[in-house]
């Protein structure tokens, strides 16, 4: 072999490939529904031309549980159990807009302390959701270490959530008019009500310091990694006009340079009492989406530390009728969830359950841009783009 | 957000659309089904509502197979509901239109908002509403061979037929006159 390879007679490969045009046919590549990078059971039917993706069609429905129908045959307090399971990575945050909507229709004023507890636990859900992202996203594009660190750090936050609500993933903690007395609070009587478990404030302060340390470490370990930067910078750029037209919300929208966060714009929880910033990105690429979420964890920890110091006393439950009946009316209440805007359009006809409940979830709209973002992208970037959208299939299919 | 800004927005919408209401902080406009697409074009161009939030439908019917029927009789119809919002304030508008149940069809919004695509496919399979000029009107969640439209009020939940749900017992056992206001904190 070696003798025939005369360096003077070798054809120059790069020139040869330019002069030859080969007719190619698109190949159909099926990805999923069981594929680790699809965070559940998303199926993609991709048409690829060599390494280039010419079109992608997502196929949904493998996780469809019909929650909008099931909500019609349940009472309002029972729907809370359902909505926990929509975005299971941040179950607590799903309850907030539904409960707030029912309270709005019933015209119930929620005690301030209950609102603070809701706010603290929502931010904990956000931190734990972003921990999962910080572990899973680098894992999908080849960095194995962060997932071990992220899962360990997330456990501290989940322990706190569990100590209050009794559930790590499905807290089912909100009640119309307030919150449930905490799991670790001991027996509750009418006179002496304990709402948070002993040592909660101290444990939270310690855990939030750990979160702040973890964010610094992630920014160093993941963001400072050259391979990670090459895989994510200028990959999957999403212009803000496209994002708005498709209803893309949350950290993805903010990474595209839109400073929109319902925690600042809306008043569903008393976020205006705290000092925090909205991290936004510049380019709208995968790196910015990672960076926005990671910075958000720092802001969430700051909010929780302020709320712990500023915790008001008082009741945790407003006066509500024993049988919850929501008067006739329609309202849309939305909240800034870890994945983006989540809202419930409640149509009440005065019955024990909603006549119709439209559930607007963040991931559904967020992945509806996949066909646009992936068109013309390289196949290895598909995993990076999908990972950076941070969707949960329960949130897509409902 | 500033309260006066919100009122200014509500006033500008209400001066443009006659059939509007604010109920529980939710601004809702009702339009004719023929001007459905034009309404969204106007809202996008004149009111800066560029963020396509969601679209869905409601089946208004007195004959409800499962769940609570409306307390007051309603005219059977489909109500199409869409939600548009902005990305610099809390402003949002719920648009609604009613179409007949005999021939449920309406113009698609995909040419105005690309994001309407999946939402309309969902409404198509769940209610059987035909969106005219939709580029790819096929089922989104359900298998192709699936028959029926699950979110119709005439659609029964088979599992409930086979085995009544135990949660019903708690609710139905409670007489109407037993409603009491509980003690604070209980």
| Coarse morphology of chain A | globular
Which structural class should the secondary elements of chain A be placed in? alpha+beta
State the distance separating the first and last CA atoms of chain B: 35 Å
Count of β-strands of chain A: 8
CATH homologous superfamily designation of chain B: NADH:ubiquinone oxidoreductase Nqo5 subunit
CATH topology description of chain B: Beta Polymerase, domain 2
In CATH, the architecture of chain A is Orthogonal Bundle
In whole angstroms, the N-to-C terminal distance of chain A is 61 Å
CATH homologous superfamily heading of chain A: Cytochrome-c3 Hydrogenase, chain B
Secondary structure tally: strands of chain B: 7
Outline of chain B, from the CA principal axes?
Answer: globular
Secondary structure tally, helices of chain B? 5
The amount of beta strand of chain A, in percent, is: 5-15%
Number of domains of chain B: 1
| Percent helix of chain B | 25-40%
- The Cα radius of gyration of chain A reads 24 Å
Strand order of the largest sheet of chain B: 1-2-5-4-3
Number of helices of chain A: 16
Order of helices and strands of chain B: HEEHEEEEHEHH
- Determine and state the CATH class of chain A: Mainly Alpha
């Amino acid at each position: 072999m070696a003798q025939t390879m005369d360096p003077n007679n070798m054809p120059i490969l790069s020139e040869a490939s330019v002069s030859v045009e080969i007719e190619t046919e698109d190949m159909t590549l099926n990805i999923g529904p069981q594929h680790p990078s699809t965070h559940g059971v998303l199926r993609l039917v991709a048409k690829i031309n060599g390494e280039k993706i010419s079109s992608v069609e997502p196929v949904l429905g493998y996780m469809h549980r019909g929650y909008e129908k099931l909500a019609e045959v349940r009472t309002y307090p029972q729907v809370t159990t359902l909505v926990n399971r929509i975005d299971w990575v941040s179950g607590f945050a799903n309850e907030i807009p539904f409960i707030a909507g029912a309270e709005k229709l019933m015209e119930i004023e929620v005690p301030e302390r209950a609102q603070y507890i809701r706010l603290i636990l929502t931010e904990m859900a956000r931190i734990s959701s972003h921990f999962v992202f910080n572990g899973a996203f680098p894992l999908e594009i080849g960095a194995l270490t962060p997932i071990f660190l992220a899962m360990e750090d997330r456990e501290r936050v989940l322990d706190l959530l569990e100590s209050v609500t009794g559930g790590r993933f499905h807290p089912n903690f909100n009640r119309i008019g307030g919150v449930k007395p905490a799991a670790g609070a001991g027996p509750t009587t009418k006179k002496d009500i304990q709402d948070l478990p002993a040592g909660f404030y101290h444990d939270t302060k310690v855990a939030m310091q750990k979160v702040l340390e973890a964010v610094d470490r992630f920014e160093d370990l993941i963001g400072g990694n050259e391979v990670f930067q090459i895989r994510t910078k200028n990959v999957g750029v999403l212009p803000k006009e496209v994002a708005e037209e498709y209803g893309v919300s949350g950290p993805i929208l903010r990474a595209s340079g839109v400073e929109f966060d319902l925690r600042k714009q809306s008043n569903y929880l008393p976020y205006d009492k705290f000092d925090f910033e909205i991290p936004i990105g510049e380019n709208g690429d995968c790196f910015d989406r990672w960076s926005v979420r990671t910075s958000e964890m720092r802001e969430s920890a700051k909010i929780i530390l302020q709320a712990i110091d500023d915790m008001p006393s008082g009741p945790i439950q407003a006066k509500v009728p024993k049988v919850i009946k929501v008067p006739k009316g329609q309202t849309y209440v939305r909240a800034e969830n870890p994945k983006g805007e989540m809202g419930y359009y409640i149509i009440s006809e005065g019955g024990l359950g909603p006549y119709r409940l439209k559930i607007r979830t963040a991931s559904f709209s967020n992945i509806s841009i996949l066909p646009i973002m992936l068109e013309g992208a390289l196949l290895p970037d598909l995993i990076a783009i999908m990972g950076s959208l941070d969707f949960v299939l329960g949130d897509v299919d409902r | 957000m500033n309260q006066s800004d919100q009122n200014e927005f509500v006033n500008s919408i209400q001066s443009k659309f006659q059939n509007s209401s604010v109920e529980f902080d939710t601004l809702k406009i009702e339009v004719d089904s023929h001007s459905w697409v034009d309404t969204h074009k106007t809202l996008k161009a004149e009111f800066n509502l560029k963020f396509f939030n969601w679209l869905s439908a409601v089946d208004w019917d007195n004959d409800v197979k499962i769940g609570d029927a409306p307390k007051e009789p309603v005219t059977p119809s489909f109500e199409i509901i869409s939600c548009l919002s902005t990305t610099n304030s809390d402003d949002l508008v719920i648009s609604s239109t009613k179409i007949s149940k005999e021939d449920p069809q309406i113009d698609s919004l995909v040419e105005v908002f690309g994001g309407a695509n999946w939402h309309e496919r969902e409404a198509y399979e769940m209610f059987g509403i035909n969106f005219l000029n939709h580029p790819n009107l096929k089922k989104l969640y359900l298998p192709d061979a699936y028959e029926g439209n699950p979110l119709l009020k005439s659609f029964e939940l088979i599992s409930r037929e086979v085995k009544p749900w135990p949660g019903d017992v708690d609710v139905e056992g409670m007489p109407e006159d037993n409603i009491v206001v509980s003690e604070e904190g209980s």
